[in-house]
Amino acid sequence: MTDKISKALFEYCLRLGDSPLILGQRLGEWCGHGPILEEDIALTNIALDLIGQSRAFLTYAGEIEAKGRTEDDLAFLRNEREFRNLLLTEQPNGDFAQTMLRQLFVSAFQYYFYSALKLSKDKTLSALAEKSLKEVSYHLRHSAQWVIRLGDGTSESKARLENALDELWKYTGDLFDMDDTDTILIKEGIVPDLNLLREDWLDKISETFGLASISIPENVFMMSGSRKGKHTEHLGHMLSEMQYLQRAFPGATW
To answer: What are phi and psi for residue 165, nearest 5 degrees?
Structure first.
């Protein structure tokens, strides 16, 4: 592997590890606050799945970098501008409708992404994608069912879902942004072309929205920048809590 490909792969693995890390942290905030006990447990389990995915990808990133950094170092000792998570994942939970809609957008993307990444020439990425896909399939089914239930439920649940859509749709364009890192790795057959996934993702969202009796917004300005470490104000606040122990007591272990 050339140095150029190695650097690109390290950068890409940070993206793959950061998004589930941050979304898992967000979902963890629901622990003890779910609308019903069963859903409280379901959200916590999804969060644990995501943290597990994050550990795997960040561990691989550390191996590629070969500077002795572990998954813990990459999770807790980087600043906001060094994170590469999708903008959607850092958005606040809001109410239950906003949480479920955010999950639908991300899980649908992950489902088609991991399905394509299974074909990677990088055996480690291929194996991690196959494992993650099994978990994400459930996440997608779970969030889609809730979005349909909320949209086709009471007038209040539908209004809350539509408010969530107004808040979150502008971040969905960031899912499919690509840069030179993608170009290098696509050429090597290591990662998929995100442009080829967009239509499948949109079809799934359209199908779910149809059953939920809501419509996809039109002519919305899309936010982007996660690939360059540009984030909303929410990430910094989250990291101040998530990284507090390691920052306050460097090197602390159980």
So the answer is: -65, -40
